[in-house]
């Protein structure tokens, strides 16, 4: 298929009289309700359920291997290749499927808050609630911008179109296919809205490094003095929760980029996990769930329409999507300066990594490449309890290029801007998963606060015997005892075994980074 045919296919679809383009939030909410795609909650949010797929489906995600991607993509389990022919056949089928719908919904906007680097995108949805999600999660254009908007990448999402793997060449009925030639992301078979935003993030991770901009799987906020903080972490580690801070202005909760002028948000909204959400612990997120917000797989009372955030019947991965403006203290547009502090978040289910440690430059590079955390239940299909994982750059599922590309850029930037780096374990304490418990959010918030206020810059530290990490001996608001993992375990032998086991996993995983400098390779756990 050549470019002409490609655009004619899309053009035909977009010129159909079933196309509802750039509807307002109110119009989309009405559509969601009238089409019976969802219900209204007591605070005016719409609530939709997604059936079988309640999390991302990494095994169903592919990148078309063509002249645009072949020599650049780091092919493997994360970046699975698929033939151009398979994509093009499915592309035609999906377009046919959408043409036959009574209505389809189109959002036009941007990925990237910095006007110099933004990507004009369009999102074509079979479901109105997905289009509302896209509107709230991506950057909404002004009327003027809309008038001259020419999309440079298109997401097409047709959840009720199910592939037949034996005919269509997919892995299952669900598929997320990226074509850099056609500049199209084709999604079918899954209703999980997260695929829509994370697939745009994936292509930004391909496109931005070419412009010498570092894309990052992190949240960002700004202090009163204009000091910028980034929070890297895989799903469920606390990016969204910890970046929502009444004392700091929110830039964004999940996807950012670092250019020569500073950081900018890729998105225009947040996508918060809302399992066990409470107004007391997470007031900003709780109060953002109002008219215009989308609740996904949350269960609510049939009569009062009050969400029950403790209910895990549908999934642990319940979500709330809302535009940034639903949070009071934000930076608008979502652009900030160069980061003063970077926090790597890990939800360590082994309960052996210190709750906070200060990293040297080499340790920072080591831990960025390692990307250790535990996958928590729900965000990816098939994960039902914490599972240790090493996800390079704290975002491997979204990185088309080799991890070293991103790591090199981060290293240079940390050097240039003298950024301090901390590792914060938001996971288990007092024992591993099943024995210990997740560290208190209030303690983690106190540690974040101390790190960002510079209170930990020149303080006494103690070196962790197994991981070689420098642990501050005091952090305001946190009992000293909590800071040293071993002290929180009753069974010290069990602690030691668990910690050494994790250290070995680190070493094993790091073997694949054979090209890094010896200083970085040796900055891992001291226990060999
Ligand atoms: N100590 C802690 N630090 C951060 N989050 C915690 C902590 N304890 C429990 N949590 C919960 O873990 C989840 C973190 O999820 P979230 O912030 O959405 O992660 P991410 O944005 O990185 O995917 C939230 O549901 C939060 O309430
Ligand atoms: C939506 C996701 O991201 P996070 O959990 O990091 O918010 C995801 O990984 O599917
Ligand atoms: Mn998040």
From TrEMBL:
UniProt remark on cofactor binding: Binds 1 Mn(2+) ion per subunit.
UniProt keyword annotations, A-Z: ATP-binding, Cytoplasm, Decarboxylase, Gluconeogenesis, Lyase, Manganese, Metal-binding, Nucleotide-binding
Catalytic activity: oxaloacetate + ATP = phosphoenolpyruvate + ADP + CO2
Principal localisation: cytoplasm
Gene3D superfamilies: 3.90.228.20, Phosphoenolpyruvate Carboxykinase, domain 1, Phosphoenolpyruvate Carboxykinase, domain 2
GO MF entry, a single one: phosphoenolpyruvate carboxykinase (ATP) activity
Residues that hold Mn(2+) according to the record: 198, 217, 254
GO annotation, biological process: gluconeogenesis
Binding site for ATP: 198, 217, 233-241, 282, 319, 438-439, 444
Cofactor: Mn(2+)
Entry's EC annotation: 4.1.1.49
Family to which the UniProt record says this protein belongs: Belongs to the phosphoenolpyruvate carboxykinase (ATP) family.
Function: Involved in the gluconeogenesis. Catalyzes the conversion of oxaloacetate (OAA) to phosphoenolpyruvate (PEP) through direct phosphoryl transfer between the nucleoside triphosphate and OAA.
Protein name per Swiss-Prot or TrEMBL: Phosphoenolpyruvate carboxykinase (ATP)
Native species: Ornithinibacillus bavariensis
